[in-house]
Amino acid sequence: MGTMTNTNAEYGADQIQILEGLEAVRKRPGMYIGSTSSRGLHHLVYEIVDNSIDEALAGYCDTIEVCILKDNCIQVTDNGRGIPVGINHKAGLPAVEVVFTVLHAGGKFGGGGYKVSGGLHGVGASVVNALSKWLEVEIRHEGKIYQQRYERGNSTSPLKVAGECGKEETGTKVVFCPDGEIFEETVYEYSVLRQRLREMAFLTRGVRIKLSDEREGMEREEEFHYEGGIREFVTYLNKNKEALYENVIYCEGEKDGVYVEVAMQHNDSYNDATYSFVNNITTPEGGTHLAGFRNALTKTFNAYAKANKILKENDATLSGEDIREGMTAIVSIKIQEPQFEGQTKQKLGNSEARGAVDSVVSEQLTYFLEQNPAVAKAICEKSLLAQRAREAARKARDLTRRKTALENTSLPGKLADCSDKDPKNCEIFIVEGDSAGGSAKTARSRATQAILPLRGKILNVEKARLDKIYGNAEIKAMITAFGTGIHEDFDISKLRYHKIIIMTDADVDGAHISTLMLTFMYRFMPELIKQGYVYLAKPPLYKIEKNKKVWYAYDDIELNRILAEIGRDGNNKIQRYKGLGEMDPEQLWETTMDPDTRILERVTINDETASEIDITFTTLMGDKVEPRREFIEANAKFVQNLDV
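The structure assignment produced for this chain is given below.
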């Protein structure tokens, strides 16, 4: 085979692109802020707020104000020391200009300016500047107000003194407008900022963070301030659950240069809700700090249970999973040079963090349990119950596995499977009720669409232990059909369908059933949702007929649009569908199942909002009525077309 040559394209030393400074950020924004979607857009705000939080951690700032301005630009103000305005001799520019125009500049490097600092990369201000159409900074320092403006990362004039202020007035104000050339989306979401800023306030004890929105018709403001820090975070996360004991357990200390804070409290649920943070950044995949916490917890509780004869000589030791059943915990550490692992940089790798957390928690938890025997006993007894349920669940699971091996992975009898065996082409409709299931089986495209009809209400997994869950026929049918197993047996590579579509009636009951199914998937197979395999079907609400022509409307707005188009008169026949069972197979196919015409909504989870999702599921599926009513009232304006 001859060699291929291309005389036009030379690949030598001169062809290697060197992207200078901020030009690199504009060329490859994803490397610096993760993405140019809505997530990256909001990340800009966190980078600037992180700088203010660093001032708070260093003890110089106690108030941070974030405002979404009328034109969708962002203003962040703090009462810290103000970014230095003196000349940086290396660069020959004022320090503030270096911070905003030179990549990897700032007080976080070289270990001098800050002991620890928030944020992930420390790229902060210069990256925000590079990705903004314009940015203005105003600094109050030693009685003077300094200002500078930048456009797409470059200063438009030297730093100037714009006025005077009181000697004791200090701080920094940054106003920036994200660049529409870079971002796919430039509209800020108040709720996304609220979630992250509330979290920052919990993690930085005592700091006051104000958030306001000045956009027309969206005006509102809130303030987050928690003197109890992460203790209050745990109380907030447990607010719709029954706590097992009154006071939140709190451990704090420093070891090997790692500052450790842990807060935890058990409740009457069966889920482990542990959230870990490094320098105020969430670590959804955990890492060494989380491993240290879990080790300390298991070791300390077993030692206590044995010493106090709660565990007898021959009893099996409690597993970490048993002890963490129904526990809400926050593990927050501050470390000078965090190392992150994994593709998404969401897992901490520093080995000293494991030892530091283990040591601080072991020592202080031992002390707490000895001083609070009633609390210790309550936790140990809940763990023993969890252990028994886990054992019963294991037996049920083994039985299922053995059966499966004998019957050569027999699928549930009521599943109408598809003939194509390539998961990429296959989808499964989970349909509630027999009549809709029958229509769906007739309507489907047999090659690629499977139908699993569920009879009766699916179990609410928020209120049940594992053994009950394994015993529930509807849940068993779903687990077997999907093929992935659940919990520690979960294996995404065994997924039999790349689209799992929940198809329920468009009414309150249907919404409830969808939520029950989503709760089950979120608790036991979260990867299905995270990787985008779960969808909600959207059946139409109305069928409009006129002169033998048919239209379908999926909401009231669409109904009105169609009626405006075809004319509102006596010839219009409008049918309001009460449920899927009212449609014949052809209608069901045309409106809800045909890939060419249907509407599907993908269910997504963002790692950054994990704690809020947890609260939502507890609110909707838990025992307390009042929080559920409040939640529904607060969100009612976003919900349309629910029959009540």
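Interim note for the steering committee: Residues 1-12, 108-112, 404-408, 636-644 have pLDDT under 50 and may be disordered. The domain at 413-539+600-638 is CATH 3.40.50.670 (Rossmann fold).
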